[in-house]
Amino acid sequence: MKPKVMMMSAFVIFALLTWSKASKGIQELPPKKVQILVNQVAYNLKASKEAMVKSSMPLQNNVEFQIVEVKTGKQVFSGKVSRSEQVLDWSDHAWYSPINFAGLIQTGDFKIRLSVAGINYGSDSFKIGEAAIGKISIPAIVNFFYHQRANSEEEKEADKAIRLYGSEETVDLSGGWCDASGDVSKYFSHLAYTNFMLPQQIPMVTWSMANTAEKIAVLLEQIGSRKSLVQEGLYGADYLMRSLAKEGYFYMTVFSYFDKNPKARRVVGLLADSKTTGDYQCAYREGGGMAIAALARISQWKTHGEFSSEQYLAAAERAFAHLQQFSIQYADDHKDNIIDDYCALMAASELWKATGKLIYRNEARIRAKNLNLRLSATGYFIADDQNRPFWHAADAGLPVISLARYLDVETDANCRKVALLTIKTALDYNLKVTKEVNNPFGYPRQSFLYKNKVQNGFFIPHENESGWWWQGENARLGSLAAAAIVGGRLVYPGKAAYGVKAELSEFANHAVSWILGCNPYHMCMMYGFGQNNVPHMDSMYGHGTGKGGISNGITGKDGKGDGSGIDFKVVDGGNEWRWSEQWIPHTGWFLQAVTAMSTN
Q: Is 400 inside a domain boundary?
């Protein structure tokens, strides 16, 4: 026992000496305790660029870094590492020191080098280029969605005649995309029973593809992705068409029950713990609004899929008329909330733009005004008619995106003024709450209700209306990055990257870089890119993890009901899906973010 006691004593003495030297500005850090975290995929040439040094102790203020070309080893940039900070909510033994190299405006492949206590460290390689993130990621995203198509022979055959829950009646719901790398079900939305947490799934992905195809057509042609993206968007629109019931509502979910028998699939409404019901009619917030928006938008293209452009538009108008009458009836609590407002706003705006009809203009104005009235004095949106802040693990930026799309068609000066004020207030709040604590990564923070008290944090509360659903929030990051740029161009135009003021440009870059590897776990969430990826996940019918797809991401600490702390696990006894599973809203929102970043 004595040798062990002596060894422990020596370690304690070493630790105390190390702490003493560090407090005097002398660095004695073991080699494995320093790591350079970078965006492992790419930085856009004219945008802000940051990496991060993660260390077990604070670095000296005068630590220098160099950036070198990968091929030649030639130094092309140098500077000093910024002041070390801790995020005490995450860890009291990790320090983060930003490396800013926005001044490096040179294309190529590079690495960062620095020296601490006489020991040299190097980063993984990364690329810098004009619109580099979009040029690299968009072709991969299009291929990912092609991979996610529910088009195996088993699925195609079974989905041509899927039974409605509790009935012998069948419908043809072939097509669409599998929801996740571990779930081959197909959703317009889920979590309907929560009322406030519903994500937009297949309809949002379809709208995102339409948005990209229109906004950056020239770039898509340059990288050879325009035709394939248009085809994928039409594939999505055709599924929306087949999902429209003769009564005028959309079917919400094709659920697999995680059963290998494809004939076990049913059209259902979904509760917690995979319990199913016959409540499968979509309200505005349950995917109906975004499906209308996607169909109306794609109806204006000069091409079509299995259905004609005229059929896309007629279906959108029929569904809109139906939901104007029945959406509240379909909603679980039978009253509108903020999700209905922004989804109905998107539907009405796209139909107004496509047809010019006053009925859609009038509804768009009502919904836009509703969003303004939902702003709290603090600046965040209120989700209900009381005091619940709007926080969302996927679609946090959608209120701003829907208002921006509305402003693409609205010309009335007073209506525009109100909508612009709503966008400005929301973006101001996002910047304010993100900056109110030490936050070296610039991770977008949020306000939420936990145990009847409003509080702010990095990650969503694990105790929420769903009873079980919390996971990495990469879709939320993508949506907020898109909102910062798209909304920022309207209310904060500037000379920084993407045509907005510097704060918003940096906010968006931080969110995207976090997804691409500049995070405390140095994990690139876009599978098949970068140096560190989550493990591959297999699924039924040959599906599973796909190259170019985005994983769930980082969460608050497992076991923390308020979402505090930080966690990321690749193995967790079957629960690792919370972090490593790919989910189509993540990739759909990332597509919107890089689309916004790919043009001014």
A: yes
Q: What is the pTM of this model?
A: 0.94
Q: Which of 145, 165, 270, 259 is nearest to 210 (CA)?
A: 145
**Mapping DSSP to helix (H, G, I), strand (E, B) and coil, where does residue 80 land?**
strand
CATH number at residue 64: 2.60.40.10
- Count the domains in the chain: 2
- Of 95, 61, 103, nearest to 78 by C-alpha is 103
Give the sign of the dihedral formed by CA 493, CA 391, CA 452, CA 337. Answer: positive
Question: What's phi and psi for 256, nearest 5 deg?
Answer: -85, -15
DSSP H helix total and E strand total for the chain: 16, 17
Domain boundary among 76, 105, 129: 129
- CA-nearest of 57, 63, 62 to 28 is 57
Same domain, 69 and 155: no
Shared-domain flag, residues 103 and 212: no
126-129 and 95-100 as β-strands: parallel, antiparallel, unpaired?
unpaired
Same domain, 344 and 441: yes
Q: How far apart are CA 247 and CA 94, in angstroms?
A: 57
The CA-atom distances, in angstroms, between 98 and each of 36, 58, 59, 284, 384 are 10, 12, 11, 43, 39
Residue 6 lies in a domain: no
Together in a domain, 111 and 259 = no
Q: Show the tokens assigned to 360.
A: 């859609």
Q: Are residues 114 and 240 in the same domain?
A: no
Q: Which domain holds residue 337?
A: 132-597
Q: Give, for all 600 residues of the chain, the pLDDT tens digit.
A: 323 233 233 323 333 333 333 333 334 444 458 999 999 999 999 999 999 999 999 998 889 999 999 999 999 999 999 999 999 999 999 999 999 999 999 999 999 999 999 999 999 999 999 999 999 999 999 999 999 999 999 999 999 999 999 999 999 999 999 999 999 999 999 999 999 999 999 999 999 999 999 999 999 999 999 999 999 999 999 999 999 999 999 999 999 999 999 999 999 999 999 999 999 999 999 999 999 999 999 999 989 999 999 999 999 999 999 999 999 999 999 999 999 999 999 999 999 999 999 999 999 999 999 999 999 999 999 999 999 999 999 999 999 999 999 999 999 999 999 999 999 999 999 999 999 999 999 999 999 999 999 999 999 999 999 999 999 999 999 999 999 999 999 999 999 999 999 999 999 999 999 999 999 999 999 999 999 999 999 999 999 999 999 999 999 999 999 999 999 999 999 999 999 999 999 999 999 999 999 987
Q: Rounded CA gap, 564 and 480, in Å?
A: 20
Q: Which of 96, 129, 162 is the last residue of a domain?
A: 129
Measured distance CA(422)–CA(428) in Å, rounded: 10
**Is 390 in the same domain as 423?**
yes
DSSP run (H or E) holding 102? none
